[in-house]
């Protein structure tokens, strides 16, 4: 049996807001080219399945029917619906909008089905992770919220508790809002402080609704947080809250836009740190929920030198054939990147392991990242029966 299933089709490239938009389909194209050049598609550990668009009932599991109808109408007519976020600069209307967004949902839900049914322990949809979409509105390049739909499918299939882990530089506000009052879902988001970045939410004091307090966990980091501090922040919160929550499955979003080269954010988290965090999520999946792990893509707008490297590493991690840090990248892939983009491609996969300090090594009140971590721990740890000051 394959270790991982990758939901992929070139049809997923039709989620395309047009020339000049940051959410360029080339992110996915270059990633899949690298996945192929690295031999992952022929490894035997990974199977590729073509996803179909989700039906209205599946999209409607996390979106209002009137909103789904509005998306279809906007796509058919080209008319904006600004009240629902359609036709904005972030979310321009395009003819294939409903079908393309529904296919993202279909892929993530199919990944959840594959994991929950035991067909494979891990499944991926690198085209997914559209975490900003709200129940009744588009937001931040996201029409439908495939991440929330994957979580909901796991609940509907019988999961008692599902953990959603969001590593994108932007707060995972849509998923958090959809499950705000649901104690069966824990949403963890590590992101740039919302006072300095879209969508402006995700404060450490936001810990879930009535009856679900402690189910929302927000680590809001200062701009320019580097790899070592980012890993320290993730390690100081994520393992503890997941172990306390005891999920039956994990859905994770691996937006790469925390990288220092990303044009839309102000964090400075390297490729190696993002690869390390993916490995941690993978390991927690095996420790806590018999390996049931659904991994999604997300944001990331350094299209040539970051996104393909992080997401091909994610695919390899899920397939249990992790790539060596610093390894040379295939020359054939580099040539293709340069021909397609006119930009020089990266020569190696990151630089190597990142040195970082564990939280148990001591709190530094003069460090802005440490203060952000402590704020999260003080707000949410007591809700989960944890000590905010000690591991």
From TrEMBL:
One of its GO terms (biological process) is epigenetic regulation of gene expression. PANTHER family: HISTONE DEACETYLASE HDAC1 (PTHR10625:SF10), HISTONE DEACETYLASE HDAC1-RELATED (PTHR10625). Pfam families: Hist_deacetyl. The keyword Heme does not apply. Residues 21-316 form the Histone deacetylase domain. One of its GO terms (molecular function) is histone deacetylase activity. It comes from Isoptericola dokdonensis DS-3. Belongs to the histone deacetylase family. Keywords: Acetoin catabolism. This is Acetoin utilization protein AcuC. Pathway: Ketone degradation; acetoin degradation.
């Amino acid at each position: 049996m394959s270790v991982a299933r990758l939901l992929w089709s070139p049809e997923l490239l039709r989620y395309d807001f047009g020339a000049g938009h940051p959410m360029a389909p080339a992110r996915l194209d270059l990633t899949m080219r690298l996945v192929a050049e690295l031999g992952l598609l022929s490894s035997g550990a990974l199977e590729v399945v073509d996803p179909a668009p989700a039906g209205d009932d599946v999209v409607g599991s996390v979106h209002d029917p009137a909103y789904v109808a509005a998306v279809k109408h906007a796509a058919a007519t080209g008319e904006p619906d600004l009240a629902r976020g359609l036709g904005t600069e972030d979310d321009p209307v395009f003819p294939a909008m409903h079908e393309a967004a529904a296919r993202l949902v279909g892929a993530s839900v199919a990944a959840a089905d594959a994991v929950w049914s035991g067909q494979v322990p891990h499944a991926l949809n690198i085209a997914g992770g559209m975490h900003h979409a709200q129940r009744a509105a588009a937001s931040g390049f996201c029409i439908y919220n495939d991440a929330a739909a994957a979580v909901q499918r796991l609940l509907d299939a019988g999961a008692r508790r599902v953990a959603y882990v969001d590593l994108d530089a932007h707060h995972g506000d849509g998923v958090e809002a959809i499950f705000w009052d649901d104690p069966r879902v824990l949403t963890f988001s590590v992101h740039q402080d919302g006072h300095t970045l879209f969508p402006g939410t995700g404060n450490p004091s936001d810990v879930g609704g009535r009856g679900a307090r402690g189910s929302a966990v927000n680590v809001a980091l200062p701009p320019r947080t580097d790899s070592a501090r980012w890993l320290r922040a993730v390690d100081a919160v994520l393992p503890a809250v997941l172990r306390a929550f005891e999920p039956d499955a994990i859905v994770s979003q691996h937006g790469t836009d925390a990288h220092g080269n990303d044009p839309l954010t102000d964090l400075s988290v390297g490729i190696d740190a993002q690869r390390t965090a993916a490995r941690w999520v993978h390991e927690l999946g095996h420790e806590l929920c018999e390996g049931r792990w659904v991994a999604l893509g997300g944001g990331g707008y350094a299209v040539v030198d970051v996104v393909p490297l992080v997401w091909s590493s994610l695919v390899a991690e899920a397939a249990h054939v992790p790539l060596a840090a610093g390894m040379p990248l295939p020359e054939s892939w580099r040539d293709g990147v340069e021909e397609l983009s006119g930009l020089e491609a990266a020569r190696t996969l990151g630089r190597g392991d990142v040195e970082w300090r564990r939280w148990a090594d001591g709190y530094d009140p003069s460090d802005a990242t440490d203060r952000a971590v402590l704020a999260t721990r003080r707000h949410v740890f007591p809700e989960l029966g944890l000590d905010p000051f000690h591991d």
